[in-house]
Design goal:
single chain, GIY-YIG endonuclease, 7 domains, seven-stranded parallel β-sheet, 33 strands, binds adenosine-5'-diphosphate, binds zinc ion
Length: 798
């Protein structure tokens, strides 16, 4: 039996299958999709069996060292998906497989040197190295011995040392110590005076199964010492019982029942059910204004899928994975739901993944990577807020969850539902062309009106002498809500609003010495941080250029807004939500709960408050500097501006109280801001499509971004020029290759960056050519330091 294995060595040379012999003892376990440990050069590495065959073309193959999984962690479908993913995103196959599995399943193998003789027989440096231990790791030996390292080789040859391999798991299963009585014994072995032992014995006698140690001790009111005596007498055994970590901390959630659908909802539901029951794949765009009851549709569609005995994947953007959203799904489906998002620890993620893998749950609610949930009988995949850019992974593999969902939907004969109040331009265009089926919800539940939106011209405010970040109108409205005891939300678009540090005398801006990007000021540690490489520096007291002490931080961070509110409305209770205040686990949830319970008048925050909030007493939404995103050099900046404004506006007036939205802007005449006034999505799209057509952008053209980086500026320039020339020669006439040009962020972590943009409508040679570039140029040993990253359908051009 020969196994064809992809090894966990992401490099151009190793991006293929390697043959290994399967020893007899592993043959029952060796299946496509299991993880294995295999010898690879001088190392042992993890790999995945892709296929089993009868023969190999090689004359000699090494045996597999170990099979790690009793049941495959990747099904046949996921194996194929992985290969497809590596082809469509141009990445190494093993990277695609890793992306589909929780980090906990990534195993490292450590090489260990074991002492076979008494250490005094060894040369002195080795005696010092082992220092009384029986084994040391290969890395430790290498680092400590330095030039004496060759002594290891002689000691191995002399059989004084041997090499073994030790698997290092990333995360273990969580276990809890349990106790139970050993059957067949009674209490006669316990002396009468040992009252406590009798008490513990009596507690355990009443249990039908093993109970957690802590529980047993608590019930009996005894300590561990008592338990120890019983264990020594062999009356009681202690065992490790596997438990799941519970991200929701066993919180009790009241069950909810399906609501009676409105007429519009009923119509949408009927179209959906038809597709669900026919077991056919179709991609559907559910365009429904905020508060139109999309989530209720998702819940009921999932319900009908479960009734058919199938499973459902529900994707929501990371920032929308608010406790409110999760609670709605738990309330409807209880323990059938697994949750997956980046806020979970590696162990929790692993546990949620195992619940799916063991088919103990039927629904997963999660962020982007939940699209890889190892279900085997998927009945529906739903992507809420489908326009959100968090569905695109910005590291290898650079996939979009929407593409993966459609791939899996086709494979399972299941519908894919894309929901949004402001669909992406691309999806909307596809639905208009009939590639996706369009479903629409045009009204808010109970006919609640959309909130009234007013745009304030901040240039005019300045002319009127108001230099504060709040317009007169917003101040007035906030005061009004405080008096009426209604709640307000203040939204600050953080992107483009980082707090940088600048010298007021010479204009010097403090920036990272490894990356061409300015530092962000962090108040907590009174320090400067680089958001690209993580470098941290103390806040300088004087300018490093001119020595002036007029060095200050600038920009309107949320903290600064908070201070400003405190000055204007000393009596207002404010909850601030941003990366700083939500870093601690559970903080997000606590802050929102406090706001929901009316413990604050104003909720101030960044993107993370733009979605998913459903509080009845919010009647005012204020947007500070709506256009901060508009000036990012990106063809999607108008689309993003419109979407986020619509999104925050949707937080107001969701219940009986009417909502009002005040948008502050320096470019109020821009269509992305102007059209929010009437919530006019259709007109926005019409205008945006013209702009895209004129500029040659998606959906009229496809785009790909190739980024080159190197520690030497000259090498990156020459390599990028050479490769761009090759691309131009390979592609057809109509395909446009722009560049190479220096990237907007010219240097990250001491690597110089150049990029080129490819625009194409139909380019049959695209994948093949990019694949050639990746394999040829990265294999070329003179290009060791060159790194090339490819992003098909890029969302960020930095
Ligand atoms: P969306 O996801 O489109 O923003 P939601 O599903 O959150 O909308 O619905 C908005 C509000 O209306 C929620 O409070 C929800 O419980 C309520 N709702 C939804 N559908 C119905 C219905 N058919 N009858 C009554 N209330 C509903
Ligand atoms: Zn200066
Ligand atoms: Zn940096």
């Amino acid at each position: 039996m020969i196994a064809r294995v992809i090894v966990d060595v992401p490099a151009a040379q190793t991006d293929r299958m390697f043959d290994y012999e399967v020893p007899k003892k592993w043959q029952a376990f060796a299946k496509p999709g299991v993880r294995v440990i295999v010898p690879f050069g001088p190392r042992r590495v993890q790999g995945f069996i892709i296929a089993l065959v009868n023969q190999t073309e090689l004359s000699k193959v090494k045996p597999i060292s170990e099979v790690l999984d009793p049941v495959p962690v990747l099904s046949e479908e996921l194996l194929e998906l992985g290969i497809w993913l590596s082809q469509t995103t141009i990445c190494y196959q093993v990277r695609a497989f890793q992306a589909m599995l929780p980090a906990a399943l990534k195993t490292k193998v450590n090489k260990i040197l074991v002492l076979e003789v008494d250490s005094f027989n060894l040369p002195l440096p080795l005696q010092t190295l082992f220092a009384g231990d029986k084994a040391v790791s290969w890395e430790e030996a290498r680092d400590k011995l330095k030039q004496d390292f060759p002594l290891i080789k002689s000691a191995i040859d002399a059989k004084q040392l041997t090499i073994t391999y030790e698997r290092k798991e990333n995360t273990r299963k969580k276990t809890v110590k349990h106790v139970a009585l050993v059957p067949g014994w009674d209490a006669t072995a316990i002396p009468d005076r040992a009252k406590k032992q009798h008490e513990l014995y009596a507690v355990l006698k009443n249990k039908s199964a093993a109970v957690p140690v802590k529980q047993a001790l608590d019930e009996a009111g005894v300590t561990r010492a008592t338990l120890k005596s019983l264990i020594e007498k062999k009356l009681v055994v202690e065992t490790d019982v596997e438990v799941y970590r519970d991200p929701l901390q066993s919180e009790v959630i009241e069950r909810s029942n399906p609501l009676v659908l409105t007429e519009e909802q009923t119509r949408v539901m009927a179209s959906l059910k038809k597709v669900i029951n026919e077991d056919v794949h179709e991609t559907m765009l559910l365009h429904g204004v905020t508060g139109s009851g999309k989530t209720e549709i998702y819940l009921q569609a999932i319900d009908s899928v479960l009734k058919k005995g199938q499973e459902a994947i529900m994707l929501v953007p990371e920032i929308a994975l608010t406790p409110q959203m999760v609670t709605r799904f738990k309330a409807r489906f209880g323990d059938l739901v697994a949750i997956m998002h980046s806020g979970l620890s590696n162990g929790e993620k692993y546990d949620e993944w195992r619940k799916i893998h063991r088919q103990e749950v039927k629904v997963v609610v999660g962020a982007r990577s939940a699209v890889f949930a190892p279900f085997s009988n998927i009945g529906i995949i739903i992507i809420d807020e489908e326009h959100e850019t968090t569905y695109k992974q910005e590291e290898t593999p650079r996939y979009h969850a929407r593409d993966v969902a459609i791939y899996r939907g086709e494979r399972h004969g299941a519908p894919v539902v894309l929901g949004s109040a402001t669909p992406s331009v691309e999806s909307y265009a596809r639905a208009k062309k009939g590639v996706y089926k369009m479903l629409a919800l045009t009204e808010r539940i109970n006919g609640r009106p959309m909130p009234d939106v007013r745009v304030v011209d901040m240039r005019q405010e300045l002319r009127n002498g108001n230099r504060s970040m709040f317009s007169e109108e917003l101040i007035h409205a906030l005061r009004d809500r405080l008096e009426k005891k209604e709640q307000s939300v203040l939204f600050l678009n953080r992107r483009g609003y980082s707090t940088f540090v600048m010298c007021r005398d010479c204009g010097y801006v403090a920036s990272c010495s490894h990356c061409d990007i300015s530092y962000t000021y962090h108040r907590n540690g009174h320090s400067l941080k680089c958001h690209y490489c993580g470098d941290e520096q103390p806040m300088p007291s004087e300018c490093s250029e001119c020595g002036s002490d007029h060095i200050r931080f600038f920009g309107s961070g949320t903290q600064k807004v908070e201070e400003e509110i405190a000055k204007l409305f000393p009596e207002a209770r404010v909850i601030r939500m941003d990366v700083d205040t939500t870093r601690k686990k559970g903080a997000h949830k606590q802050l929102l709960e406090a706001f929901g319970e009316g413990k604050a008048d104003i909720l101030l925050g960044t993107q993370m408050i733009a979605k998913g909030l459903d509080f009845p007493r919010i009647t005012l939404v204020g947007v500070l500097a709506a256009d901060s995103m508009l000036h990012i050099p990106d063809f999607r900046s108008a689309e993003r501006t419109f979407q986020v404004l619509e999104q925050v506006a949707g937080r107001a007036g969701r219940d009986v109280l009417l909502g009002e939205v005040i948008v502050q802007s320096y470019t109020p005449e821009h269509y992305s801001i102007e059209l929010v006034k009437h919530h006019d999505y259709e007109q926005f799209i019409a205008k945006e499509m013209q702009v895209r057509k004129y500029g040659g952008y998606p959906p009229y053209y496809y785009m790909a971004l190739v980024t080159f980086s190197d520690t030497e500026l000259a090498s990156v320039i020459s390599a990028s020029q050479k490769i761009v020339r090759f691309l131009k020669e390979s592609f057809s006439e109509e395909t446009i290759v722009l560049g190479p040009v220096v990237s907007p962020i010219a240097r990250i972590k001491d690597r110089y960056r150049y990029q080129c943009v490819i625009k194409y409508r139909h380019e049959p040679k695209l994948h093949q050519t990019l694949e050639t570039v990746m394999h040829h140029y990265l294999r070329d040993s003179t290009n060791k330091k060159l790194a090339i990253s490819m992003d098909l359908h890029p969302y960020f051009f930095m």
